[in-house]
Write a structure and sequence with these properties.
By secondary structure, the protein is mainly α. Helices cover 68% and strands 0% of the residues. The termini are far apart.
């Protein structure tokens, strides 16, 4: 129930989603967690239109991993954060459903939790050449 309230609150204010994305781009794990909870229902619903079961969960997780990895490239004013992340999910779901693509790079031996934890750790260890200190 809290997730639905949280989602509604943030979906009414796209600037808040953008703020969370900007903080995520700066390796703020809590901000990314809030962004995930705000958008997960829409992302999962989008993916479930094309895929089911484990494949749907895998593709939804891969969409969030891609968003975490490339967040710093999408922080311009006016960015439609929800549309961007849902678009990633839709594209990945279509790629999974396309027999010509077979498997997707999101497939791997590691679980999604392990992959996300690894990215979060790597992201926090990475330093920008533009940051001081």
């Amino acid at each position: 129930m809290n997730t639905v309230v949280f989602l509604t609150e943030y979906r009414r204010e796209p600037a808040r989603l953008l703020m969370l994305l900007r903080r995520s781009a700066a390796a703020d794990r809590d901000a990314f967690t809030r962004l995930y909870h705000a958008l997960a229902p829409d992302v999962h619903a989008t993916v479930r239109e094309v895929l089911d079961g484990d494949r749907a969960r895998e593709v939804a997780a891969a969409a969030f991993l891609e968003a975490w990895h490339s967040a710093e490239l999408h922080t311009a004013p006016g960015t439609d954060v929800a549309g961007w992340i849902i678009g990633i999910a839709a594209r990945r779901a279509e790629e999974q459903d396309d027999p010509r693509t077979g498997t997707h790079p999101s497939h791997g031996a590691r679980s999604h939790g392990e992959t996300l934890a690894g990215l979060l750790h790597r992201r926090s260890m990475r330093r920008s050449p533009f940051r001081r200190g």
